[in-house]
Amino acid sequence: MTIVRIIGVPMDFGANRRGVDMGPSAIRYAGLSDELERAGVEPVDAGDLFVPRAEERDPDASQPDRGNAKFLREIESVCTRLADEVAAALTEGAFPLVLGGDHSLAIGSMNGSARDATIGVIWFDAHADLNTPQTSPSGNVHGMSLGAVLGREGAESMAWAHAPTVSEESIAYVGLRSLDDRERELLRDSDVTAFTMADIDDRGVTSVVEEALAVATDGTDGVHLSLDLDWLDPRAAPGVGTPVRGGVTYREAHAALETIASRNDREDVVRSMDVVEVNPILDERNETASLAAELTASAFGTRIL
Ligand SMILES: NC(=[NH2+])NCCC[C@H](N)C(=O)O
Ligand SMILES: [Mn+2]
Ligand SMILES: [Mn+2]
């Protein structure tokens, strides 16, 4: 049986809205382990990674070299340790499931997953998170995760984040609908595959996810899934810091992750996953965290029948 090692990362340094650091507890409280057992895998909770408290830090004063990237040193410390944890889980034959926390933690999970392998990435998100400190309008590192991992120009201050075994050709976005102006240019100039909400409208989510899987598996050793809960429509997932109207519905989200699971059933392709941006302070009765737990179980094979 697949052992799923749950790694909590209670980090909010990469986001503007406080509270996303409580995401890992909220997702656990929503019943993640039980859901995973029902999906037929064996969850083992490794607890939370140590994350320093933001209250003790002044985002500007302490880091003269951070440029336009808030809390860069703290994020580096967390992501470097997370990468080690993810790589260790894989070496020990477990599947690393990372709970966030804000999306900057994906720098750590991708680096860990890509340490001894060439990986593809499927990014379920309203946003591309392709900014660099040079292009970011906000300075929030959760909007820069892929820009940094790809080592894009302008991300020199984040050289530690660059993962050479993750290449643009093997990355597929699913459900994009909110890009910054300079980020849109970066995306157009890149070899990343982007399926927007318009593609989902046109073709249906199942066919889009199948194509995303084709992109991410072609020439790679496996796939990292990154699930940002703001991928969903805010009506289904209100507990996120950067909501954008017009996201996927509850049903479409399940269909997408079930498509991943059925492909994985035939051939083990997914090697690591993160579930991020659940903000319990902004949530309504923990429904976004519950959804995060359910969707994760769908990715591991929970079926209606
Ligand atoms: N992981 C996220 N929720 N990212 C939101 C990013 C928003 C915006 N594009 C920025 O860079 O600031
Ligand atoms: Mn994101
Ligand atoms: Mn997002």
Can you characterise this structure?
The chain has about 300 residues and is of the alpha/beta class. The protein has a single domain (about 5-300), classed as Arginase, Chain A (3-Layer(aba) Sandwich), CATH 3.40.800. It contains ten helices and eight strands. It has an eight-stranded parallel sheet with strand order 2-1-3-8-7-4-5-6, sandwiched between helices. Helix 2 (about 30-40) runs parallel beside helix 10 and helix 9 (about 250-265) runs parallel beside helix 10. The protein starts with a strand and ends in a 6-residue tail after the last helix. The mean pLDDT is about 95. The site of arginine has 15 residues, from loops.
* Radius of gyration, whole Å: 17 Å
Biggest sheet: strand arrangement: 2-1-3-8-7-4-5-6
> Please, what is the average pLDDT?
96
User: Can you tell me the residue ranges where pLDDT is under 50 for at least 5 consecutive residues?
Assistant: none
Structural class by SSE content: alpha/beta
- Quickly count the domains: 1
Q: Given this structure, which CATH class is correct?
A: Alpha Beta
**β-sheet strand percentage:** 15-25%
Order of helices and strands: EHHEHEHEHEHEHHEHEH
CATH superfamily: Ureohydrolase domain
Number of E-state strands:
8
Specify the CATH architecture: 3-Layer(aba) Sandwich
